[in-house]
Structure of LacI family transcriptional regulator:
Amino acid sequence: MSEAVARPTLEAVAARAGVSRATVSRVVNGEAGVREALAAKVRRAVEELGYVPNRAARSLVTRRHDAVAVVIAEPETRVFADPFFALQLRGISKELTAHDVQLVLLLTEGRADHARVGRYLSGGHVDGALVFSLHLDDPLPGLVQGAGVPTVFGGRPGWAGGADARYVDCDNRGGARAAVRHLAGLGRTRIAHITGALDQTSAVDRLEGFRDVLPSPDARLVAEGDFSPAGGELAMRHLLDRCPDLDAVFAANDLSAAGALRVLRAAGRRVPDDVAVVGFDDMLPVAEQADPPLTTVRQDIEEMGRLMAAMLLRGRPRGSGRHPETDDADETASVVLPTELVRRESA
Amino acid sequence: MSEAVARPTLEAVAARAGVSRATVSRVVNGEAGVREALAAKVRRAVEELGYVPNRAARSLVTRRHDAVAVVIAEPETRVFADPFFALQLRGISKELTAHDVQLVLLLTEGRADHARVGRYLSGGHVDGALVFSLHLDDPLPGLVQGAGVPTVFGGRPGWAGGADARYVDCDNRGGARAAVRHLAGLGRTRIAHITGALDQTSAVDRLEGFRDVLPSPDARLVAEGDFSPAGGELAMRHLLDRCPDLDAVFAANDLSAAGALRVLRAAGRRVPDDVAVVGFDDMLPVAEQADPPLTTVRQDIEEMGRLMAAMLLRGRPRGSGRHPETDDADETASVVLPTELVRRESA
């Protein structure tokens, strides 16, 4: 294992290409003003000598890459199908861009690729990582911690050893309580719950909130979903089969509530007259364009993304000169954002 | 400028943490089986010494990172709003994953961030780049070429010096000809065109195809769009104002065709009876769920993404042992895929 690596110099590239050092520097730094023929010579010399621009060498020493990785523990098909992730990325992108830090989104086909994500994080390519949509049996938290890069998680950590992890979440349990209390306040007595994916803490916490208000629900009134519209449809069909007398549904997110609304309409149930429905997220335009428009629990998804990025940037190594607040421990503590019931027509 | 950098060794980290080399190795490589207390000690020593795992050092020498950057020259809001990009990424992700190469999506807020993207590409973090949705006055091609990483472009290069660039495209001009010929074959004589963003070669080529069939169109029958539904709506309103007697529209993509359909319906025009409409892309579910379902020109967007990734991987430096076809020059040549008219109800 060679620990000190002698690398070809900028001068060597200039000599090989027959151009000045300044020209090589402009080409490798992506600056304009070099004729294409010269630039091609430089690139050829760079390639032949295996020259690595100085920025990479410097970043190896300083461990500063001005880049942050985002890892969403879902297949890329889901990342692009669920607007939740686009919203969270919007907040992250705005905050990183404001600090001229590159957002590096690591996409996968699924969990089998997470070891490779861990290798990339270990490889010295980013200053930190933002990781969200974790599932409880996922090896990703261990891989991320093993990679030794500063990390902020989206959502309360649920894995062993996650107690010290920094995270941003919303008050899932309190929001769920507000939803179920609202339904009970409407006089509904047979209130069902379509859960999220129960290997995620957000789903577990919303189920707990449901149980806080209804400590001994009829077990048949709880059906497992997975935060998707299809999962909401399937769960709603099961609920109607098992409990045809239900008069309200709290769905763990707006997408599954939208699926439930479709099944209720197909079954001839009027919403909210026969069955009142409350979602979670206040995901626009899903909630507004639902039929009828959805009463839901609002969380500020974009702000959660922004906060995750801000927390990570504040935790960067000192000496950047751009984050004087680095030492303020309070500003890097985990954050749980409040939620708020938004009334529309479905309940 | 120091070109040979002495870095702390694995042994130094082990000594600092008071653990074995094997333990350090397991932690930095993200492997399981190390107690959290020990792993924490190792991470602290890694941090204090500024140790860089050997993988990073090795990749600096070999220039192999088993990672490929994807750069879409659009703001991230557009990347997540237009399903075209999700489809292209799906093809890219499948191909890269099949070769255990990490997909690194570099997101931006807009063109002002492209210099930073160029720096990341120059920084020795990826083996190559896939770049698409370029606009003609974008500095990105120059930045990418200056970065010296192998690159495959999506869409025919339109910038100066792009003649040698490798790319994957579809037959935009031939597809447009097929669309307009189909409308003419239906007996339509006042055929309008809603263009795409005319700073992109795909839009220019489709306009050329329209002109191939109708060499001297009434200039008022061509309205500029931008590939978005809102752009299609605006262009359709202009067309109806200027040419109320139009009897057909060829829109440069399905999203703008969907916008045009909404405006035609609001104006009381029956499709296809009064106005026949053809789109481009065959983007599902946009085309199928349009009202009426859209006749369009099909291109295989996912396959284009897959081919871009395959072409880049085949062009990687030799010696990987995984791409024996590296030397086959034909397999790294640019590709233009055929298009096909798909008839539904709108024309």
